[in-house]
Q: What sequence folds into this?
């Protein structure tokens, strides 16, 4: 994650946005008041949000991790779509 000042981000906004969208880079912009803002590509944000939603339920999280474990161990039947 790149950490930059607000003034740097403002001066280099186009370059920063290109890095975010093309390289999936994440930027942390620190404001003068010390607060920070994270800049992330929307597709990456959507993916993080969806993952958090799916893992919110302990039962669902257990099923997902069990399925992932089985897939990593090549357990199960491959289905052709």
A:
């Amino acid at each position: 994650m790149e950490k930059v000042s607000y003034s740097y981000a403002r001066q280099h906004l186009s370059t920063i946005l290109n890095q975010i969208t093309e390289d999936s880079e994440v930027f942390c912009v620190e404001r003068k008041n010390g607060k920070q803002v994270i800049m992330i590509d929307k597709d990456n944000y959507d993916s993080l949000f969806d993952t958090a939603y799916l893992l919110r339920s302990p039962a669902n999280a257990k099923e997902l991790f069990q399925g992932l474990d089985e897939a990593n161990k090549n357990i199960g039947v491959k289905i052709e779509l």
